[in-house]
Write a structure and sequence with these properties.
Elements (H helix, E strand, L loop, with lengths): L2 H14 L4 H8 L3 H8 L7 H11 L16 E2 L9 H22 L8 H7 L6 H14 L11 H7 L3 E5 L8 E4 L7 E5 L6 H17 L13 H15 L2 H10 L5 H12 L3 H8 L6 H13 L42 H11 L5 H7 L4 H10 L2
Parallel strand pairs: 2-4
Antiparallel strand pairs: 1-3, 3-4
Helix pairs in contact: 1-5, 2-3, 2-4, 5-15, 7-10, 9-10, 12-13, 16-17
């Protein structure tokens, strides 16, 4: 009996269901300490105890014995130390395997469009100019015009052969990660926790695309510390990918007659980015924009906009690792979750169900839904 595998699966399932260790123990009729030791892989549980646990969680006993593939070519950095790093990697590995199996079953794999660009970028010295060039060329690969805002980044990435997984994790220190093609990807995972702004979800997706294009040689699951230079380059890429220079200048000039505050909000809505992303771009030529926006916000709302970086800490053409805005409460005129939605995996599941290639319970497992939620979704299909 592999107690570590059992523990990892228990944790993955429990956290997916949003259940605390205490609640899981109570449902199983065991002490919290007993449950914790089993989940941490510190004790060998009796079969009767496992049966009580799975009954309480509403799963099957065999769910605890599914082996978890170990990802290796992963770029997984976080601003804070994460105790659940192994859980996230295990969940991503299972999701990737489910996705790839479904693609093969339906013969609907999508070619990765950025192979040649990645090779070209590996011959260019790293830095801000490489990041801007990469952003411009990436948009060409996606057939985006120079002045075209990105309305559906998840859809664009999926159409280019990149799998997108919105994972919900209560952490303001983890925004996303990416997996190389050689390890079942390419894939981009974005933390869509309710307290993180949708603008940040979108920026994180673009940021991880930057890493896939620019830093593929740094994909190593053993490395958890952020490289400031790599993060800076990926941030610059994301900014210019989401807001090309000519498009940004054109939209900014169009708002010339509005107040500074309204100009920032209008441009941010056009490009689906955080107000911080707009301000960082403006700060390349005017470092006082931060003070100006803070002052304008106070005049407009009567409140102080919190969690703003001091202008003196900024450098032209650069971004700090904490940007753009994290908490939704700090994002003026924020987007809604409908502005960041992946749909390819859901579409593949529906096709497989309609062709009777998978069961309803298997579809629920792939989409990380419980059976009742899956039934509700199926009944809503037209």
């Amino acid at each position: 009996m592999d107690q570590k595998m059992i523990g990892m699966n228990l944790r993955r399932i429990r956290e997916f269901k949003g259940i605390s260790q205490s609640e899981a123990a109570e449902r199983a009729g065991i002490s919290r300490l007993t449950y914790r030791n089993i989940e941490n892989g510190e004790s060998i549980p009796k079969v009767s105890t496992l049966q009580a646990i799975v009954q309480g969680l509403g799963i099957k006993l065999q769910d605890l014995f599914v082996p978890v593939r170990t990802l290796e070519k992963v770029r997984f950095r976080a601003l804070k130390r994460m105790n659940n790093r192994d859980y996230i990697l295990a969940e991503v590995a299972r999701w990737l395997d489910d996705f790839n199996d479904l693609e093969k079953l339906l013969n609907q794999q999508i070619e990765y469009k950025f192979e040649n660009l990645t090779l070209e970028l590996s011959t260019i010295p790293p830095g801000a100019e490489r990041a801007k060039y990469a952003a411009k060329e990436a948009r060409k690969v996606l057939n985006l015009t120079e002045k075209e805002p990105i309305r559906d980044i998840a859809g664009l990435l999926e159409a280019s052969g990149i799998k997108v997984y919105p994972i919900r994790l209560a952490s303001d220190g983890f925004f996303g990660l990416s997996v190389a093609k050689s390890d079942g990807g390419p894939a981009i995972i974005v933390n869509v926790w309710d307290r993180i702004s949708v603008e940040r979800w979108i920026f994180s997706a673009a940021h991880e695309l930057g890493h896939l294009l620019l830093h593929l040689d740094t994909y190593n699951v053993e490395e958890s510390n952020e490289n400031p230079d790599d993060e800076l380059e990926a941030n610059i890429f994301a900014s210019y990918f989401l807001m090309p220079e000519s498009a940004f200048k054109g939209e900014w000039d169009e708002t010339y007659g509005l107040s500074f505050f309204d100009r920032v909000l209008k441009v941010k809505r056009i490009f689906h980015v955080s107000y911080k992303t707009v301000l960082y771009r403006l700060s390349e030529k005017d470092r006082d924009v931060w003070k100006k926006f803070k002052f304008s916000y106070k005049l407009r709302t009567g409140k102080t906009l919190t969690n703003i970086e001091e202008p003196d800490a900024l450098q032209p053409d650069s971004f700090q690792q904490s940007m753009p805005e994290v908490l939704r409460a700090h994002e003026p005129d924020s987007l809604s979750s409908s502005d960041f939605m992946e749909d390819r995996l859901s579409r593949l599941v529906r096709i497989a169900l309609e062709k009777e290639l998978i069961t309803l319970s298997r579809g629920a497992e792939i989409l990380r839904l419980d059976l009742n939620e899956m039934r509700e979704r199926v009944s809503s299909w037209e």
